[in-house]
Write a structure and sequence with these properties.
Layout lengths: L6 H28 L4 H11 L20 H35 L2 H13 L4 E4 L15 E5 L2 E12 L6 E7 L9 E7 L6 E4 L10 E12 L3 E3 L3 H38 L1 E2 L2 E2 L4 H29 L5 H25 L11 H9 L8 H13 L6
Parallel strand pairs: 1-4
Antiparallel strand pairs: 2-3, 3-7, 4-5, 5-8, 6-7, 9-10
The structure holds flavin-adenine dinucleotide.
The site of flavin-adenine dinucleotide has 20 residues, from strand 1, strand 3 and helix 9.
């Protein structure tokens, strides 16, 4: 068993780490305080990050992407999420939606939309959740009814990351709610061709990462924009969720490591009782717990990405990584605040941002409880969902 990154991956890690430290880290706190990123700001960042492989990371070279592996993705995103998780979200959702389009779209659609996404000119998102449909994805109510050459889309999506700034939305809908999972399909909505309403939702953490409610009212989408057909749609959408879970896990690993780094720095500088607090055993205990949990989370997460690289579905591994890493990051970031004392609650130090950001990842892409039920189902062969 080899736990080491390859030489190329180490080089990628070092190069991107240097760039992020010098160019992106100094901007993160101020941008986070400002709230959701504008489209123009996002374009600027996407173009800066493109040379490192952040756009179209997993898209094949044949489709104009980088053709990198899931482990490369993990290396890129562990670094970015630790420096600026909100930006990592904008980039990650655009890049993962591009990957979905390249895997499921027809060649005409791919040729039309991918170049803009891979150059950083366009932004994408994926819309599953609805006001009354969260954990139970099979109960989707948004309707897509075929009418001649178009699907007519009606329904509301909510909590959609990048929703206010996205040019393309991969919408999961149902062709027939009475069919349950068998009726589910996915359509790519091009905002300039098929307009829809978007409303920003303010949230606790990853504040630069826009989150929106999207309203589709008799929204006509060309039938060529079908990504996933009814029947196959649900299974493939669930497979995409395993990758999304790994992504939430790697974001959490990045945030947790940043919280450790900040705490180690602070503990060495801050003196009480005439000595650095780093020397107190109870502070060391907190640091030791933070390091052990983060290393365990990192191993589980890289293993899950490794399974995806090997062509596995990663259902169990993705859920284990997501459940463990996202909850661990909340504990780690909370201890980082504790080590900073009152200063940990102030905007003078980045740990309050890490704490708020970490708290956001136990919910999307299936809550911790849902991950546990998936793990239980994989291990026991008996589903608690039905
Ligand atoms: C930051 C953020 C970004 C997001 N981005 C996107 C996005 O880009 N696209 C998108 O489609 N969605 C997105 N979501 C939505 C997200 O996927 C849902 O919030 C999530 O699936 C949970 O659904 P819910 O919030 O409706 O909670 P609910 O499903 O209503 O769950 C509420 C509570 O009940 C528990 N619960 C539910 N069912 C069970 C059960 N069977 N057994 C035990 N407990 C259960 C849950 O664990 C939770 O504690 C995002 C959410 C957040 C917070």
């Amino acid at each position: 068993m080899d736990f080491d990154l390859t030489d190329e991956q180490r080089m990628l890690q070092e190069t991107v780490r240097r760039f992020l430290r010098d160019k992106i880290a100094p901007l993160a706190d101020a941008f986070d305080r400002k709230g959701p990123m504008t489209k123009q700001e996002a374009h600027g960042f996407l173009k800066d990050l493109k040379p490192f492989g952040y756009l179209g990371t997993l898209v094949s070279e044949e489709h104009g992407g980088c053709g990198l592996s899931h482990i490369d993705w993990a290396v890129l995103h562990e670094e970015l999420r630790g420096v600026y998780a909100g930006l990592g979200g904008v980039v990650g959702i655009t890049s993962s939606t591009s990957h979905g389009i390249s895997g499921s779209g027809n060649e005409a659609l791919i040729g039309r939309v991918l170049p803009g996404l891979l150059s950083g000119e366009k932004i994408a998102c994926t819309a599953i959740t609805e006001p009354n449909v969260g954990s139970d994805v099979s109960a989707i109510q948004t309707r897509a009814v075929l009418d001649g050459d178009h699907y007519v889309l009606n329904g509301t999506k909510t909590w959609i990351s990048n929703g206010t700034i996205a040019d393309y939305v991969a919408v999961v809908a149902t062709s027939d709610p009475s069919k349950g999972a068998a009726g589910i399909l996915q359509l790519l909505v091009e905002r300039d061709v098929s307009p829809f309403e978007a409303r920003e939702i303010k949230k606790l953490g990853v504040r630069s990462f826009p989150t929106a409610e999207l309203v589709f009212e008799d929204c006509r989408v060309p039938k060529e924009n079908l990504l996933l057909t009814p029947g196959k749609g649900f299974k493939k959408a669930l497979r995409g969720l395993a990758f999304a879970r790994c992504n939430a896990a790697i974001a959490s690993v990045g945030i947790a490591q940043a919280a450790i780094d900040a705490s180690v720095r602070y503990a060495r500088e801050r003196t009480q009782f005439g000595r650095p607090i780093a020397g107190f055993q109870l502070v060391q205990e907190m640091i030791a717990d933070m390091v052990a949990e983060t290393e365990a989370a990192r191993l589980l997460t890289y293993r899950a990405f490794f399974v995806l690289d090997k062509g596995g579905a990663g259902r169990k591994e993705g859920s284990i990584a997501k459940a463990y890493a996202t909850e661990a990051a909340v504990r780690v970031a909370s201890k980082a605040v504790q080590i900073h004392g009152a200063y940990g609650l102030s905007e003078e130090y980045p740990v309050e941002r890490y704490f708020r950001d970490a708290r956001c990842y136990t919910i999307p892409d299936g809550t911790t409880e849902i991950q546990k039920l998936i793990i239980g189902r994989e291990v026991l062969g008996s589903s608690a969902f039905v």
